[in-house]
Specification:
single chain, Arc Repressor Mutant, subunit A, alpha+beta, 4 domains, five-stranded antiparallel beta sheet, 11 helices
């Protein structure tokens, strides 16, 4: 009989651990077949995993088997190559989330990278991810409290620091039924239903100070449209329903398409003639749309609608007043 080397045993333990991680219950016979060993060897390998800190429970039944359970400590984990790369990418992205875990994410990334084979380290090192801006910092404890309230369907009471307003801690606590905790552009937002206003509300997490205890349980609702990301994008555009700007207009700019396209974003820009570009764009108000188009610093022909022409006229009148010396 050949004697298994320590290298063979270690490789088999890793294979066993990988199988236990991807499926809840494994019959002992199936594990033995997958590993190419006897059921007795599987039992010995399970004992070795238990010595390393893994909680592997025996499953009773006609076939018998094993189940990997969560433990009180974090034992070594096993990832395949794609999982390891995905984890490293996620840890790099975590720096820009504003969740207050930057240092921990950096240490975890260093730990994962250290045990990677060289070919995977090269893939990770070649991937340049630099946050466009630092996210607004939010305490991890607050994020966990908000997330727990969302999961438990418990009403929240909190104070809210509105921009440009004095601290309102002396005011009655606000109430909201939390439904979603979302990160957008480095900021965390709580999306919930306000029983007092009978409408959906969005709050920046960094401006919230929770009061305890939480309120009563509630029955979850569905955000308009069914998708919280689309709903939040619509609210930031000033729309109560569809994910579209409430004020849209069309103009022709005396600029070549190459000068307009980089700033068009999701808008529609097309060349109508050499040096002239048709642009269909929108904003949350007609005044904001007129100001947005004025930034191109070019002659503008308004195609429509009339509300946009009126907004340009009002902007012109205001500019004329602002240009006079202050007295």
């Amino acid at each position: 009989m050949p004697i298994a080397t320590s290298t063979t045993t270690s490789a088999r333990l890793l294979s066993l651990l990988s199988l236990l991680q991807v499926r809840r219950d494994w019959p002992g016979m199936q594990l033995a077949q997958r590993l190419g060993v006897s059921e007795r060897t599987v039992r010995r390998d399970v004992d070795r995993l238990r010595e390393l800190g893994y909680l592997v429970h025996a499953v009773k039944g006609p076939d018998g088997g094993y189940r990997l359970e969560a433990g009180s400590q974090v034992p070594p984990l096993l990832f395949d190559e794609e999982q390891a790369v995905a984890l490293a990418v996620a840890l790099r992205i975590a720096v820009g989330t504003g969740a207050g875990i930057e240092e921990a994410a950096a240490r975890a990334l260093a730990t994962v990278r250290q045990v990677m084979p060289s070919r995977l380290r090269q893939r990770i090192d070649a991937l340049e991810i630099e946050p466009a801006g630092r996210g607004t910092q939010v305490g991890t404890d607050l994020l966990l409290a908000l997330s727990n309230a969302v999961r438990a369907c418990e009403e929240l009471r909190f104070d809210y620091r509105s921009p440009g307003r004095p601290d309102d801690t002396a005011q009655p606590a606000r109430r909201v039924q939390p439904h979603h905790l979302v990160v957008r552009s480095g900021r965390w937002y709580l999306v919930g239903w306000s029983p007092e206003r009978e409408d959906w509300r969005t709050y920046r997490a960094d401006r919230m100070s929770l009061r305890t205890p939480n309120g009563p349980r509630f029955t979850p609702r569905q955000v308009p449209g069914g998708d919280v990301a689309t709903f939040l994008a619509a609210r930031f555009k000033g729309s109560d329903s569809a994910n579209a700007w409430p004020c849209r207009g069309e103009v022709v700019l005396d600029l070549p398409l190459a000068d307009v396209a980089p700033f068009a974003g999701d808008d529609t820009a097309e060349e109508v003639s050499p040096g002239r570009t048709r642009l269909s764009t929108g904003s949350w108000s007609w005044a904001a749309l007129a100001a947005k188009l004025a930034r191109f610093d070019a002659e503008i022909e308004v195609i429509g609608p009339q509300e946009l022409r009126d907004a340009f006229a009002e902007l012109s009148r205001r500019a004329a007043r602002w240009s006079k010396p202050f007295s």
